[in-house]
Amino acid sequence: MEDRRLILHIDMNSYFASVEQACDPFLRGKPVAVGGGISKRTVVATASYEARARGVKTAMSTWEALRICPDLIVIEGDMAKYLHTTREIVKIFYRYTDLVEEFSIDEAFLDVTGTAERFGGVLQLCRKIKDEIKKKFGLTCSIGVAPNKLVAKVASGIQKPDGLVLIEKENIPLLLKNLLAKELCGIGERTDEILKRMGIRTCGQLANYPVQNLIERFGLVQGVRLSNMGEGKDDSPVAPQKNGSNAKSISHSYTLPKNETSLSDVKSYLLQLCEQAGRRARKQGYKGCTVSLYVRYADFSGYCRQKKLGEHINDGFDLYKTALALLPKPLQKPVRLVGISLSGFIKGIDQTSLIEYRENTKKALEAMDKINDRFGEFKITRASILHNKLREKCGMTARQI
Amino acid sequence: MWFINDGRKYLVREINYEWVKKNGASKVHHFAVSDGTNTFELSFDDIELIWKIED
User: CATH number of the domain at A249-391, please?
Assistant: First the structure.
């Protein structure tokens, strides 16, 4: 199957910054960074190519970015704008194939094996997609074409911005030979560290490493997978998400406006995050049984705890009670960031409880959800979170609600 | 199309970008526009039927 497949990886170039430059012609050609606005505690989510040329990088603190590029224009991100643009761009993709996998807000895989000829071949199809995106939004993208998703993703990164790179099957070994293994999607920092200790740095070395040794170190599934990755083999299908997403977890985190030492303030933010996660879970029809709490301290050390419950929940307050039990009391150090995650989902199952107060709570939540659906988020919420700053900061934070 | 801001009339010469935000049941249509010299963000709430100058 893999021999004949034509897989595209489409990566929007400097996405958030490019959208802002498209909105405002006076930003074009200038160093622009999009993030949480001008504050010492925010980071750069995306930098324009002009800013990148000056050394500004993604995830750099805004303060650091402004230090190395004093004329940097810092813009507070508007996630609704980017999500809307993504939805419209995905509609363009569906005109060329129904096999579209949205990989992230600015990346997608397309399987055009069965449709490329209709558009005059795969390269012509890619040019049409690029032209449509450019014409409608003024944005550019880089497209990688390859027999599988793994290599297509590598290919899209070769030429930026506005690239189009086709990798034929016979050229894959040459492409991967000296490519660092960590550049492959699916090899994270931890795996890379282990591989390095085994003397493997490049994909070529990974491909030539005895698979049996990889199996011994990583287990059967992961060992074989890594060996295949080194050879540029990947038979994973392009999985469309058109019929509803299959989320594995719902997470929210927030960098506090200042390092907090007060437990009550941290609890207030935690409750807000739990309410957001619960609201999202209810909207998508999920209930989860695993709650994870993450705390990052001012010295950047972390604390992570997880609890598996005997029941599935989607009430933010139930989530909060579990998370609160996981929170260290008293706080060990000043807290910089707090995060919550709900996972272990079941979908669409909602049993009537025999316990009256549970049914009443469910009805109250349904009523609250209806009000917020009608009048907008946070129109009705818990009084104990009214004073925290997170409610106002819903651009980059509460985007998924 | 034109609008008045701070007593001055601006003629919309170009719509640079459009997007939609949901606010409860309302769809708020946003337009990044320019008059050739200045840029503005206008919005239109399709339930309240209100135009706003956002930025």
Answer: 3.30.1490.100
